[in-house]
Design goal:
Number of helices: 2
Largest sheet: 5 strands, mixed
Protein name: UPF0102 protein FKV70_11760
Order of helices and strands: HEEEHEE
Family: Belongs to the UPF0102 family.
Distance between the termini: 41 Å
Organism: Paenibacillus ottowii
Radius of gyration: 15 Å
Strand order of the largest sheet: 1-2-3-4-5
Number of strands: 5
Helix content: 25-40%
CATH topology: Trna Endonuclease, Chain: A, domain 1
Strand content: 35-45%
């Protein structure tokens, strides 16, 4: 029974994360960004969204929260997470032969409710 509860909780977390990432992708597309990748993974980690804004390749960390009880979405980005995103971005650039591409790291905060996900902040060049 405990394993079943853990599985259900993990599934709910994944569903909420997907809802937040979809809201972030739509938000960026409405600003003229072109989404290249969603949930790009390699051994070093995962990047939520990779997009192109004009000539800049943008790696985006999406953070979603349904309440501020444990802090804001932006406050949940740790130094460890920043390092992981940067390392994963380096792998992406290497694997795609884009080592010289101009890049940027953004962070998007999403507020979740039972049926909606709303982008509350877009931190350009966040880290």
């Amino acid at each position: 029974m405990e394993d079943e509860m853990k599985t259900r909780s993990k599934d709910q977390r994944k569903a909420k994360g997907a809802m937040g990432e979809e809201a972030a992708a739509l938000f960026l597309e409405n600003l003229g960004y072109r989404i290249l990748e969603r949930n790009w993974r390699c051994r070093s980690g995962e990047i939520d969204l990779i997009a192109k804004q004009e000539h800049i390749l943008v790696f985006i960390e999406v953070r979603s929260r349904s309440s501020s009880r444990y802090g804001t979405p932006a406050e949940s980005v740790t130094a460890r997470k920043i390092t992981q995103v940067r390392q994963t971005a380096a792998v992406y650039l290497h694997m795609n032969g884009m080592g010289e591409a101009p890049i940027r790291f953004d962070m998007i905060s999403v507020r979740l409710s039972a049926e909606t996900a709303v982008v509350t902040d877009h931190f350009i060049n966040a880290f």
